[in-house]
Amino acid sequence: xxxxPGTAGISEQDETRNGSDHATEEQPELDPLLLWVxxxxxxxxxxxxLNVVLLGTALVAGQAFNPxxxxxxxxxxxLLLLMGFSLVWMLWYLLWARKQxxxxxxxxxxxxxxxxxxxLLLFAAFSLLLFIFRVGYLLSMRACKPLSKxxxxxxxxxxxxxxxxxxxxHSKDCIHRHKVITRSGLMLILSADLLLWLNAVTEDTxxxxxxxxxxxxTELSHKNSTENIGMTNSTFCQCSGSPLCLIxxxxxxVLYPFNMEYYLMAGCMIYVMWKxxxxxxxxxxxxxxxxxxxxxxxxxxxxxxxxxxxxxxxVAGVTIFILYQVWVSLPQYRITAFLVFxxxxxxxxxxxxxxxxxxxxxxxxxRRAQEGGHNPTRSLDVILLVGAALGQLALSYFxxxxxLAVGTGWPLGELDLSYSLLSLLELVAQNIFxxxxxxxxxxxxxxxxxRQRSSIFLLKKKVAVQKEDExxxxxxxxxxxxxxxxxxxxxxxxxxxxxxxxxxxxxFLILSNIMLWIxxxxxxxxxxxxxxxxxxxxxxxxxxxxxLGQPLGVFYRMHSVAALMELLTxx
Length: 571
Hints:
With 571 residues, the chain is an all-alpha fold.
């Protein structure tokens, strides 16, 4: 019986209308402001951030190399203005824009992991404690400190606190409204983080050189290079005469590394938010299972040997760290301090390299599918691992050249050369192991996936052929249901050994990297104090290399710990 023509016409009209409505719903909503800006979704904010960072870098570098040339404290004023604009944008987003309907229809579940967020909040807490010591120190020295520097903690503390809340609550947001304003605001925050980190590095450089001068570690010939870097004894003024001022200054010395690491980590998370503006996530982009770090994962996973040897490496490292700090300031034990430091690293780094190579072998034997699709968080993880490792790699190569040039006829030269070579090997092996692990699918096995698809296809074909016989169909389905768990159990048994090995390796590498983060983060700098690099490259050049390379090395260790924790939970 033919359908009624009128009814058919109405149905066709309804389908056409529904199709057009569906197409309208799928079409991304255009921001009205985008009609008035140049092409390129990130062009305006990217150019804004580039110009702000370059101007701020020029000001901070000018302050470091020629402090007398900038008479009106332009770097501090610029940073205060940048933090002020960033605070205004964060308040606008949190109090008004976030409440608008449809502003954040998608979430990037790879961004803002629980481990990274907890570490960020820990660094934020230490940084806020640092501000208390800084306020006390600056108020004690207000007679010889510019007003902008005295006011900086009162701007930096709310900037850091509000940014921490933004990243804790909204780091997964994929924002789809006010895109130009949102990208520009995020780029201002990212620029402020980078410039505050750079400013902290230069201030740490000044602080360390003053410490070396006070200990008599520099010669009169080095004073000219000291003046070129912009060092003055006015930093201390009369602080040595006030016990309370000395306490505040000691707090600054201890807590400063946490502040530098906070700005690097916060900048990375802000960059991911900037990349996620306007991004549309598919349902399959949700992670395969919750990536939660807990002691239960280690306990149920059977991680024992990696945890045991990692704790031993951690305890030995803490002991070496304390002995080095005590002995390096005593002339009669100074060489012993260097021997202890190099001996610990020459013992642990070959083990870490071997673990990374074994992990790579396990990855080859336990083949898994590669995760597809563009993922800004994963791409940033790889970029940060490679970029941050450049700091330690550069120091290792420069130290290697200095040791070869000065000579290895004395113990420190041979130890420094061996340390540099092993650092290169360990960094390269660990980077390859982590990066390959991050790109592996957490659950899908490459070959088994293909076999499962073929078996499912054959099962459906068999059911279709025997469809007329209901009893046989039920029997074949029951057999399929009975054999499916057996195949899953067999696959689990085949992969359990690889999971155990990877978890053991990750547990040991996590604790070892934590120790290698603690040692340089709290002021152990033998590559500057042993004198090889200073003798070959010159005092000022070597000092700049060490104080730019070591913060990146510290950040690498911290970021590698976060990446290894992800590999541990997804093994």
